[in-house]
Amino acid sequence: MEMLTRYYIPIYIFIAVFFWLQSASAQIKGTIWDTKEIYKVPNYETISTDSAIGIVYQGLTYKGQSKNVFAYYASPGTLSGDRSKDKNLPAVVLVHGGGGTAFKAWAILWAKKGYAAIAMDLRGNDAKKQHLAGGFDEPGSLTPYFTITPNLNEQWMYQAVGDVILAHNLIRSFAAVDSNRTALTGISWGGIISCSLAGIDNRFKAVVPVYGCGYLFHNSAMLKELDKLSASDKATWVKQYDPSQYVGKAKMPVLFINGTNDGHFYLDSYAKTYNMVKDKNLSIKIGLKHNHSYGWGNDEIYHFINSYLNGTASLPKLGAIEMKKGSITSKIKTVVPIDQAYLNYTMDTTSVLKDRKWERKVVTIKDHKVWLSGLPDGITIWYFSVIDKRGLQVSGELQWMVVN
Question: What class, spelled out in words, does domain 317-400 have in CATH?
Fold first, then answer.
């Protein structure tokens, strides 16, 4: 019995590690991030202790050495000062957008909701937004989103996506975290990265990209930057990094959040992106402003993620549009009563989608359906939306009346 015990433990550990690696590599395998170092749990150092803990973890190889990445980690235990009470926590990985950083407040927001959270800086900066020794080098403090360099590991998007995967590896390794209950959300450029990672890292149980989408080469504020590249570099960037190459492989549910008039991510490219995902929900809002706090302030994010990680009430969901006998309907799937339903529409024909004026009108809810007798004349784009008793808003798919 003594010999059995002696050999049983290492075999058990070997088997556990084997299956962890198998689950980790299920979709990463075959992508440009399929390197030995992407599957490791990165080493890290604690550099500050507060309501959120400041850490520096080891990223991918960059310019011949392991890159340093600053992040904040927060949990109910870091807030209370007693981490011994952190057990079996769901976890969320938080990805900032352009000009952003590792937002301490964002990590704390999720910790207050009972989550372990990690928010990393993808720009090579520290807690004071100063360059971190051994971190990514931003030329002139400008993020080189579209740079294609001879060395793959010097390209910002390659490093950024890798940093997020490694942050996921790290938080899943913490004893306080249930590694089978993790989610991802990102704002703007973080939304772009989140869309891609939905199809690359299938260990996440739910993903919420806010604003960001794919098909940047089709129509977006970023198209002008892509067009500055040579034809070869542009094709390389699109193949390696545009979310359209990955998001269609997403196996987890994805909630897409955006505003009708977002100045960076336009509705046609947005629709192309969400149409690639089988298990999706939408929350498209008239007048949603674009910045980090407005982005993560959408309560739908938490309720969507929490429904999949903690089994709480899910968001409502609108079904496909049905037209029959002059009526237009969409089935409502919900466990929370619906407060109001709307027709959201624009009559503008300008080709600049972000500049179109949007209106909405109350419509009928009948027999668990949104119901409308007919559309106003002159509509060019429209969609249904509903708001439940919690004040949470979801949308149906965009309906296009004219070619744009």
Answer: mainly beta
